Amino acid sequence: MSVTPDEALSVSPADAHEISAEAAKLSRRHFVGKVWQVIFASSTLVGIVALTTLLLNIVNSAFGYVAVENTVQPEHLAINGVPIERMPKEDLVAVLESHVSAGLMRRFENEIPWEERTREDVYNLVLERVVDPKPVAQWSLYESLFTVDAIRQEMVERYPEADLIFKSWVTPSFITSPQSSNAFNAGVRTAILGSLWTISIAIIFSFPIGVGAAIYLQEYAKDNLINRIITLNINNLAGVPSIIYGILGLALFVRLLGQVTSGAIFGYTDPMTANGRTILSAGLTLGLLILPLIIINAQEAIKAVPNSLRQASYGIGATRWQTIWHHVLPSALPGILTGTILAISRAIGETAPLVVVGASTFITFDPDGPFSKFTTLPVQIYQWTARPQDVFRNLAAGGIIVLLLMLLSMNAIAVLLRNRYSRRI
Amino acid sequence: MASLNPESSNGRYAIEAKDLNLYYGDFRAVKDTNMKFERNKITAIIGPSGCGKSTVLRAFNRMNELIPIYHATGEVIFNGTNIYNDDVDPVEVRRHIGMVFQKPNPFPKSIYENVAWGVRKVTNYKGKLDDIVEQSLRQAALWDEVKDILDQSGLALSGGQQQRLCIARTLAVKPNVVLMDEPASALDPIATLRIEELIQELKKDYTIIIVTHNMQQAARASDYTAFFNMDEDRAGFLVEYDRTTKMFTNPEKRLTEDYISGRFG
Ligand SMILES: Nc1ncnc2c1ncn2[C@@H]1O[C@H](COP(=O)(O)OP(=O)(O)O)[C@@H](O)[C@H]1O
Ligand SMILES: [Mg+2]
Q1: Residue A165 class from Cβ within 10 Å (0-12 exposed, 13-18 middle, 19+ buried)?
Q2: How many CA atoms, within 13 angstroms, populate the side-chain half-sphere of residue A413?
């Protein structure tokens, strides 16, 4: 339709009425759209605020001022006016000897003879065992930043002996130190190793079974009632609360299969792990927990492989197994891996089932195999938060940061794998 | 196991369908089909959409059996053996009666691997893999275009090149018969022409059965034409089957004439 400018400008009254009605309607449509946009934006905002609060809350506890009181002031340890910082090794050993029990000295000697220890090593022992700094009060990051004066005031009034230091609870030594009852020495190494052990066992157990089941259900099973019920039940299992898996794990792996999970039938007898509350039991329990997730994700990934690919393979005389192994699985692999990693990062954060299965409350030695006692990072965090002393709340915050970093890197790996494999060809 | 060795027979016909009825569940998609396909000839199957052309074609290499609800009655004789006999393995059938699909479907692998995979996994070819890859790509008129990029993904090729790659992949396992289900329908006219030329070349060595909804294509490219139509129950049946020249100039049946002259379908 071609309209000259003149025609377009000369509008009859009836037309004008219609046009203004139309315009009113249009502006109403725009208005409705705007309202929804605002609603959606606010939903996003609520989510962001919740997440930020969570993170701030953790960071708030993980850093801040600490009032530290030494059991023995270092100045009091000086020999002939030489402070411990400048003492030779022999003198440091003497200091140690005069402050700790003979039994402890013998244990140190048995671990590493004094001749073989470095000066640094002995110096650290002195700091740890003799000076033995203990936190007497701690403040949150917010307080440390904005109420410094009040903190100093309180220090003078209540802890005249104590030093005020600014402490980050996540440090390299926090990650590499084992569990300890002294908050300054406590770390998450035992827990991280425990987490890695249990997760590895969970993967070794549930990845092959899960992918195998998914292959069976997607590529072999006929579409009949029984198989549909099976699939439905797997979907339901994925939604079962994790504590129920814990109860199952306790009954099945700890009680019923205790001989196996404690390693007894393999001739592994450690008096410390007489029952089945081992890494193996924990790993298998987590394995059961993520099995339905792995099956479902793998099924989805296999389902997403186009049928034309299967036809191409069958069309040149490949068998079903060749088609699955050489074509379907490679195409489904990125999806399977992504799903598996997401399932694993769910398992890493699980606490309840492991507490039920019998995570140890306090172990300071590294797990050395599937038949060790265990604790895991979230369990450790949980136990710290349950301690009466406030300072363990700060440790828990540090542990949470480590856990979050672990989860973030797992998810990053998942994304990388997916991109890498789907771009490969 | 029954032998499907293509060398074991050299009768005039490569494939013969006897009283073939094909069903999806209770629905009969194709009824009472009897037809023979001459060796080293191109036979086109035409007919309106949904009349069962693809179903019939896939019955000749038992591809339909991938569809769970499908079943067939009747016989398909290939080199003297009924491929529906209990002792015949469908995997073996498909290796001798290859198939090219409507939509190009290369493997998500390199061009080389697309051709070599079947040779390595399906046949017991003893020669050098490089040779058969080159030979197959030459047969499919693709060699000159891809000889320098053999390690690139097959999916990076144009649609027409992909389809020729799929043809090369099919030829590489040395089938006896090649079934093609509208191989050019997803391609542009120039790529279509190249595929048609290629098919002419291939009939020296292979028996070719090609489904097409494009009547010009059937007229240009085939030696024989079979026309299928649907009855009231939507079951496909063979209306007329003759030399292509006869079918397009002087068909016996009124229905064929109407369809070919574009009066329905
Ligand atoms: N996988 C299937 N399941 C059920 N019905 C099918 C299936 N494939 C085809 N059909 C039916 O069989 C009939 C023939 O289909 P098809 O062979 O694809 O026809 P054409 O290739 O001639 O268009 C159609 O009615 C179609 O709906
Ligand atoms: Mg079709």
Answers
A1: exposed
A2: 13
Place of tokens 């079947």: B118
- Residue from A325, A339, A301, A328 nearest A203 by CA: A339
**Is A316 an interface residue toward B (CB < 8 Å)?**
yes
Q: What is the pLDDT of residues B137-154, one digit of tens each?
A: 999 999 999 999 999 999
B125–chain A Cβ distance below 8 A for any pair: no
Instruction: Tell me, using a 6 A CB cutoff, whether residue B156 lines ligand 1.
Output: no
**Does A244 lie in the same domain as A140?**
no
Instruction: Quote the CA–CA distance of A420 and B63 in Å, as a whole number.
Output: 34
A220, A222, A223, A316: best to mutate for the B interface, most B CBs within 10 A: A316
Beta strands B207-211 and B224-230, pairing class: unpaired
Burial of residue A179 (CB within 10 Å: 0-12, 13-18, 19+) is buried
In a domain, A56, yes or no: no
> What is the C-alpha separation between A246 and A348, in angstroms, rounded?
14
- Taking only the tens place, the pLDDT of each residue in A141-182 is 999 989 888 888 888 888 888 888 888 888 888 888 888 777
The reply to whether A334 and A406 lie within a common domain is: yes
> Tens of pLDDT along B26-39?
999 999 999 999 99
Dihedrals phi, psi of A391, to nearest 5 degrees: -60, -25
Most ligand 1 atoms within 8 A of CB, residue of B21, B23, B24 to mutate:
B24
Residues 6+ apart with CB under 8 A from A308: B101, B103, B105
Strand duo B97-100 + B177-181: pairing:
parallel
Q: Which domain holds residue A244?
A: 189-424
Residue A353 shares a structural domain with residue A408 = yes
Same domain, A147 and A289: no
The CATH number linked to A222 is: 1.10.3720.10
CA-CA distances (angstroms) from residue B219 to A227, B137, B186, B259, B262?
49, 27, 19, 13, 14
pTM: 0.83
Based on the fold, state whether residues A228 and A350 are members of the same structural domain.
Answer: yes
Residues A197, A155: one domain?
no
Task: Tell me, yes or no, whether A308 and A366 share the same domain.
Answer: yes
- Sign of CA pseudo-dihedral A105, A108, A113, A118: negative
Closest chain A C-alpha to B116 CA, distance in angstroms = 12
Does residue B30 line the site of ligand 1, with CB under 6 A? no
B226 lines ligand 1 (CB under 6 A): no
**Whole-angstrom distance, CA of residue B150 vs CA of residue B121:** 19
Domain count, chain A: 2
The answer as to whether A246 is a domain residue is yes
Tokens of A215: 């292959």
